[in-house]
Every structure is written in structure tokens, then in C-alpha cells.
Amino acid sequence: MSTYPIVRIFASDKQGLAAVDELLASEGIRRDAHLDYTCAMFKDGLAIATGSCYGNTLRCMAVAAEYQGEHLMNEVVTHLMDVESNRGIYHLFIYTKCTSAKYFANLGFYEVARAQGVATLMENRHNGFSSYLASLSKTRTTGGHISAIVMNANPFTNGHLHLIKTAASTSDIVHVFVLSEDASVFPFSVRKKLVIEGVAGMNNIIVHDSGPYIISSATFPSYFFGDNASVAKGHAKLDIAVFCHIAKILGITERFCGEEPTSSVTAIYNAVMADTLPRAGIKFTVIPRITTPSSKTTTGLGQEPISASTVRQLLKVRDFKAIKPLVPPTTYAYLTSPAAIPILERIKSRSDLIHH
Question: What's the pTM value of the predicted model, to 2 decimals?
């Protein structure tokens, strides 16, 4: 145990945060914009070790060069794991520089995937990712054309259904991954339910939970927070590196997505996929969004892309007439049912209904 106490740095502590930023910068790290706990060790007013959390991830970890032989990081990691344990969070991830991965391996973290020159994702479960891959492998089929789609479906719209039907028309099997992260207006259980109900009768669709391994706060936090382009690009590269492992297990050779006319973060993600996936032997196909006549135009002849953001905005004002042509009958039935009332009330008080 070192003689340097670990202290929490609150958002209001500008001096403490400045010291942390200086230490991180010296190690080539920029403090994440989305942290819910930060701590540091100090000597003579200078931060000599630091680490932070967000959700189930440990981030922004650094020790000053002259103190790196004193095992300070062990103490910081142990402290952060205690913080997470007190929150009831036990499955932890570290988002770290590739050059630091070996160090965290010595602290009991295991590599999930890495985007070379960008970052490495690690977790504190020896069989976490391997168990997830093993569960997916049970749905692997041999031969044929296997494709994949990843969607949030917040909620499931005719646009999502069109994307799945298009992929299904050229694929023997389509693996549809629904984001498990509960950071959306519609909870995961509802989103997955609406997807399953919406594709009922399509016999070449397999619906999966994404778990913490696809577009999650660990792999791609920018999806939920709208980070700047350079940060989002780095996150996207790591998330896609994880997906490539998943694709190998399932024999996926094509990934479909809808074109992105409104969300800048999703557009960045799609651009990184277009660059990265073909080099991994995975075809990347963008499907144009279907449209519906827009009430925003004066002529009535304009067309608006169908999007979940539009549906959420219409739900805010309870315009079910306008929603009906945008969603499958199964989604509409849910939205107009008593079960949806708590979500509709939550939407009514929200202002952040448009995805970044």
C-alpha cells in the first residue's frame, strides 16, 4: 500500500480536474467527456495516478512516468472496482491504449478485442466474451449466405422492417442483433419484443441480444452521447473489431445497415464500417431508407425518411394518426396499448428525442 491516499475528484473541483487532465495528457490520453466517478493520487499538488468510471467501464487510467514502478495503478484499479461493487456492478470493462493492455492483463483483465493504434477493450471475466460467442455459435448454420444487422429499434419501425426484409431476400440467414444497452426511451425488453413480433413469419431471421459487446457503453459510448467526430471514429473502430470476432463465429459475410441522413454519429460509424469490414472479408451494404409523405412540406409532395426519431417526436404529441403508416401493425398495437403508457409519459417529459 502506498503512502498516497486516493481521493475522489468531483465535477466542481476545477483545480483537481486540471491536475488530472495534465497527467492524462502526459500519457497521451484525453479525459473522457462522460464519467460518473474520477479519483486521483496527489503529491505536492500534482496528480501522480488517476482513474475513472462510467457505468460498467473503467477509463482514463494513468500513472506519472516517474511513479510507474510503485504499483499505484493496482491501488487505483482496486479502488474503482470497490466503487463499482458498491454500485452492484461486477462485470467490468477497461477501454485502454493498446500499449497498456499487458499491464491490465496482470491485474486480472482479459482482452476482448483491439483496434490497432486506437484502443483495446478488456473485461474482468476470463470467459465473458468467449461465453457470449459460445451462445451465439449454437445458432450457426453451415453453408449459404449469412448476413447481419445491428439495430436499436427505439421503437421498431417500417424502416427497420424494410431493412430486415431486404437483407432476408438475399440471405439464407440474417442475424439481427438488438442493442441490449438500456439507455434508450424504450427499454431493451420492449425493443426486442417489438422486433421479434415484427419479423414473425420470416423463417430466416434469428434475433439476438447484443449483450455488452455490440454498440454498448463499453464498446461504442459515442452512440449514446454524440461525441465529436474523432472520438466517435475511435469508438467505432473498436466496436467493429469486436463485431468481426462475432462474424467469424457465425460465418457472417455481409453486414447490412440503413443509410443515415440525420445522425452524425451513426454516419461516422457507417463510414468506418465501409472502410473496415471489407478488409475483414465482410461485405458492407447500405440500404436506402424508405420514405413517407411529409406533412412538413407546403405542397404535400415531399418525402421524409422513416426514422425512430420521428416516431418518438410524434409520440410526444400523441399523433397516432401520423405514426400509423411509419410502424408495423405489431408496433402500433403496442404503442396504443395500456402497456405503453409509462413510456409515453416518459417521452412527454423528454427533450432529447432525436438521435445525435
Answer: 0.89
**From CA 234, how far away is CA 227, in angstroms rounded?**
11
The C-alpha atoms of residue 280 and residue 241 are separated, in whole angstroms, by 9
For residue 161 the three cell numbers come to 422492417
* Residues in CB range of 38: below 8 A, 6 or more apart: 8, 9, 17, 20, 50, 51, 52, 53, 60
Question: Where in the chain are all domains bearing CATH 3.40.630.30?
Answer: 6-126
Contact yes or no for 255/247 (Cβ under 8 A): yes
Q: Each residue of 78-125: pLDDT tens digit?
A: 999 999 999 999 999 998 888 889 989 999 999 999 988 888 999 999
**DSSP 8-state assignment for residue 149:** E
Which three cell numbers mark 78?
482496486
CATH number of 131-289: 3.40.50.620
Measured in whole angstroms, how far is the alpha carbon of residue 350 from the centre of its chain?
21
Beta sheet of 205-209, edge-to-edge order: 205-209, 173-178, 146-151, 254-258, 283-287
The CATH 3.40.50.620 domain(s) of the chain lie at 131-289
The Cβ of residue 124 has, within 10 Å, a number of other Cβ atoms equal to: 20
The CATH number of the structural domain formed by 6-126 is: 3.40.630.30
Q: What is the C-alpha radius of gyration for the chain, rounded to an integer number of angstroms?
A: 22
SS3 342: helix
| φ, ψ (nearest 5 deg) of residue 133 | -65, -40
- Weakest-pLDDT range from 36-40, 119-123, 207-211, 216-220: 216-220
pLDDT for 328: 98
